[in-house]
Amino acid sequence: MSLAVTSRNASELLKDSQFLEEEQKRIEQRELSRAVIVSNVPKITVDKYEKLCTVLRKVFQQVGNIGSDALWVPQDENKDTKGFALITYDTPEEALKAVLQLNEYPLDKNHTLQVKTLLDIERIVHTSETFEPPSLPIEIPTDPSSRPNLFSWLLDERGRDQFMIRHEETEIYWFDSLGIPPQLEYSRMNWTEADGYWSPRGTYFVTFHIQGIAIWGGPKWERLMRFPHSHVKKFDFSPCENYLVTWNDLDPERDNPKDPECIIIWEVATGRKLRGFLGPKHDEKVAWPMFKFQYKDEMVARLVENAISVYTLPEMTLLDKRSMKIPYIRDFQWSPADSIIAYWQPEVGNNPAKVTLVEMPSRKELRQKAVYSVADIELYWQQNGKYLCCKASRLTKSKKSRLANFEFFRIRQKEIPVEVLEYKEKEVVYDFAWEPDGDRFAIAYGDNASRASVAFYSMEDTQVKYLFSLTQRPVNRIFWAPQNGFVVLAGLGSLNGQLEFYNVNEQESMNQSEHFMCTNAEWDASGRFVATWVPYSRNKMECGYIIWTFYGKEVYQATISMFSQFLWRPRPEWLLSKEQQKKIKKNLKSYRERYEREDQELKEMRRSGKAAERKKLRDAWKQYLQSIGEDDKPFQWMSGKKETTEEIVEITEELLEFKEEIIDK
Amino acid sequence: MRPLILKGHERPLTMLKYNSEGDLLFSTAKDSTPTVWWTSNGERIGTYRGHNGAVWSIDVNNDSTRVVTGSADNSAKFWRAETGECILTWTHKSPVRCVSFSSDDQFVFVATAMLMGQSSEIYQYLVDSESLEEASVPIRTFSGHSATVTRVVCHPTEKTLISTGEDGTVRKWDIETGRNTETVTIHQKPINDLQLSKSGGQLITASSDFSAKILDFRSLKVLKTFLTDRPVNSAAISPILPHVLLGGGQEASQVTTTGDRAGRFEARLFHLIYEDEIGIIRGHFGPINTVAFSPDGLQFASGAEEGFIRLHNFDEEYFQASYN
């Protein structure tokens, strides 16, 4: 206990105490959890002492090494033993094994050993005699106005968007569309130890730490919750931001089977651990996300061997107490807008590969489609859940090359009709992308990405309709704007960052440009701007980001050393109904006038502000020149018009006159 | 603004210097032949032959009769400007990085590099005497540098010398005593260039730390800072407008790692008072090593790694633009 006291004193000296204190506590807990207390040991006299030690050592060495001085059997004044022993193992894991395996160990007829870790004893000793209800993990202030408003960023007067960048620091900026540099909203030293992330609706900012992950938000960027999970590697938010999964790569053999620590499902609002799971073995390939959430956060599913386990939330119990048995299942995806799971099974023996749609929680099979001679299938849901695309890679008869084959499921139509779109031999498909909130999709394909083709199709009619294609384009990625049918066709990676801004509605190329070596592009939530960036790992000299308008005009460019990450802050779903949205679109003109006026006023204000600032700088410079006995006239006479050489001589004379005037004053 | 492109050097340019009338431009490059050009039409007048190595620095006296050059062949040479005749050669133990006339043309300052086990020194030679023997030995040495001296300039009216170093320091020296009276570290990386304002009241430094700074000559206080995203190799203050010109670009050894447009080999104009960029002048396809304004401020010259000098006469719009 003296340890704890010292730690508190030390941390008081060091003002930044919280971390140290936690660290100290952690070490202390580790020490305590290494030792086990064995009670109900036979009380014997001194002559049998050696024998007892040997027996105990033998029993407890089964689970781990016991050092020469790691076993202690206390004796009283008469050298009789007191009936208990203390054993210290090398690791807490060994101690845990001792508790699990050797508790209730029958030493002889009268003595059944009781094994507890010292940590347990510590806890039992410190349990108070009277019952106190547990306090809530977060203290919810009684006054609701003192709670941070997590949506404050959505109340920005001008509807601006935020983004996060990481370089040596982690910073959050407001992006201003009126041609001024982004304005810093918040930054914090060593905010995160790995990449930072936004939650899917943008409410929280997620940071990684050795001890676990933390979420931040509100107008003052307070830390809202911590999820302690040491050495956390990955995390995933549920779509409605109610739950969180974290994974720390802990080997299942070292995990505690009673209360696994490798994968943890958390409740975001309370920080409560709902349930832990054993992780995959180290040699298994990890597919992340391991747990996939249903769109309304009611269920979460995990792919296990030959089955999908679906758990209900927040109870985290297995749905209907059994997993869904699906032999050889390879992958599954939840629909983003319905309680439907799509999964696929590979070809086995004479049975073809199958894509199946299942409704949850009823487990009713909605549709099954067989696909022949398939090597791999990728499932792409359209954002509104209206369509599902299965991209099937087929082997040719010679089994040398692969053909791509798209199957389209119309989810909302009766019987879910399926259509097939095939691609010719030799043509590699680089990317497939649904138009978010629309009925179109685009496919980039060809035999060489530097002159690929991009084909656009529509699902609007009863059949998949070919719209048009673009050829000879350096494209390997397609980025649709969140709305309005704009698209960025990008040649990333080996194509060195070629960009084309395309209007699909008008079939018009709006601009072509390049952001040299950029590795990624992302639309902001409003669909007005696109960001492209080059991380430090790709190019040490040129790293940074560019923000473009939807039609491809560069608005802002920043080169930042050690730049690594750019992320627009997502926005929650629109609260307006489809009708209201339509109405707004119809009356766009009246809105436009208003916004243009506002923009104009703001520009005017900024201009005059800047002019005043510049005047101040000019005056300061003038004052400086006067203070060192120079005059600033040479800087002023030229601001009018260009003079010829002869005139310059004249001007020099004028200068002298001016000087005299100053002296007169 | 159609620039004159002066093609005469075969190696990267190292320094450009206008004479005080502005009709002549002196250039040095790593090809051992300093050259003099007419600024009005870009015609080459002649070269100064004699050095056996890269020439790092050049200066010309006020009446354009004498020229001094410093070279990596460990020597500095004193020339008759008009004939190209070498009057005197000073030999040192390490490459000469910088040469400079004192403001009254009485003396020449020669700075040597901290290389080959030698410390960096500034030597002062008396050059307006008739006796060559007297001129060949330094009358004073300014010692105590912690890194190679890159530039030396002399105040037009005061007996003060300013030197800059590869350690990012600016040092002030008393010419009468040879004492280092003040040292400030204002850059994190080497200072590549140092030039005076027309009045001599301000200095501008150019550094590999991507910035240029304007200092007050007397107090060595930083007055203005100009930030870029590339090493700055050279900087000059316009004699007539509150403008500064920066030249630089990615280091030559790094050029192949970026795209053709991404090297940023432009000359950049900044507003002296607001510290804002007001224009860029493209044209070079290697990093710019040296820039200079003509004394009348109507022209500037830039010399780059690719071996070309560009002479730009400013357009009328340049003088009409208002930045209030």
Descriptive notes:
Chain B: Keywords: Cytoplasm, Initiation factor, Protein biosynthesis, Repeat, WD repeat. Chain B: This is Eukaryotic translation initiation factor 3 subunit I. Chain B: It is found in: Cytoplasm. Chain B: It holds the Pfam family EIF3I. Chain B: WD repeats lie at residues 6-47, 48-89, 142-183, 184-225, 281-322. Chain A: This is Eukaryotic translation initiation factor 3 subunit B. The complex is a heterodimer of chains A (665) and B (324). Chain A has 665 residues and is α+β, with helices and mostly antiparallel strands. Among the domains of chain A are: 2-125, RRM (RNA recognition motif) domain (Alpha-Beta Plaits, 2-Layer Sandwich), CATH 3.30.70; 586-628; 631-665. Chain A has eight helices and 42 strands. In chain A, helix 2 (17-34) crosses helix 4. The longest helix of chain A has 40 residues, at 588-627. Residues 1-8 and 635-662 of chain A have low confidence and may be disordered. With 324 residues, chain B is mainly beta. Chain B has a domain at 14-239: 7 Propeller (Methylamine Dehydrogenase, Chain H), CATH 2.130.10.10. Chain B has two helices and 28 strands. In chain B, the strands form seven sheets. In chain B, strands 1-28-27-26 form a four-stranded antiparallel sheet, with no helix packed on it. A four-stranded antiparallel sheet of chain B has the order 2-3-4-5, with no helix packed on it. At the A-B interface, helix 7 of A face helix 2 of B.
Keywords, separated by commas or semicolons:
heterodimer, A: 665 residues, Alpha-Beta Plaits, 5-stranded antiparallel β-sheet, 42 strands, B: mainly beta, Methylamine Dehydrogenase, Chain H, 4-stranded antiparallel β-sheet, Eukaryotic translation initiation factor 3 subunit I (chain B)
